[in-house]
Write a structure and sequence with these properties.
Elements (H helix, E strand, L loop, with lengths): L12 E4 L5 H8 L2 H5 L9 H9 L6 E7 L2 E10 L7 E8 L8 H15 L5 E7 L3 H9 L3 E12 L2 E11 L18
Parallel strand pairs: 4-5
Antiparallel strand pairs: 1-2, 2-3, 3-4, 5-7, 6-7
């Protein structure tokens, strides 16, 4: 998937999350704006964030956006299991200083491309606060649609806030060659 970044973020690198990113991820998760748009609580320590990262399933795809040697965003693709193995949840977070500069677009593009072309996922799902208009518009640009609304979903700044549940559906992967469609002669 080709993504055009805004000129000031053309230098953003999307890469796998590393253990050495812990300090940067903790800082990112403690940004007031980033916290406002997620379910994260304030004053997260490295130990708390490290524990959260360690508990992620082994098949989680964790990506970071890096600009100037600094982690400025992250996205997780969390594949489901068993009869929901075609689905994954996603979580996206962008540093306050980089909101509106194409970082979220670059991260989501990379995650969607991996989901579609490498992981064979057919459904990506997420939850977003109903007043997070910038994020909702981003998700819609990538084909996410609203599936439902949860009233009083979470406490934020002393108020209960509603959330939308959104999902994106991908077509089934195509076979690489007609040979894949041929009947098995040994069956």
């Amino acid at each position: 998937m080709n993504v055009s970044l805004k000129p000031d973020t053309a230098h953003v690198i999307i890469r796998a999350r590393e253990v050495s990113d812990l300090d940067a991820i903790t800082s990112l998760m403690n940004c007031p704006g980033a916290r406002h748009g997620t379910l994260q609580t304030p004053y997260r320590s490295n130990a708390t964030v490290g524990n959260w990262l360690e508990k992620m399933p082994a098949n989680t795809l964790g990506l970071c956006a890096e600009a100037g040697g600094r982690v400025v965003g992250m996205i997780d693709v969390l594949p489901r299991m068993h009869r929901m193995a075609h689905c994954a949840g996603i979580g996206l977070c962008v540093h306050d200083d980089y909101v509106g500069r194409g970082v979220g677009t670059a991260l989501l593009a990379a995650a969607v491309e991996c989901a579609d072309t490498l992981l064979g996922l057919r459904r990506l799902e997420l939850t977003v606060f109903v007043d997070n208009h910038r994020a909702i518009a981003l998700y819609q640009r990538f084909g996410f649609v609203e599936e439902g609304r949860s009233p009083a979903f979470a406490m934020r700044d002393g108020q209960l806030v509603d959330a939308f549940h959104m999902a994106r559906f991908a077509d089934a992967p195509v076979f690489a060659s007609p040979v894949a469609l041929a009947p098995n002669p040994h069956a």
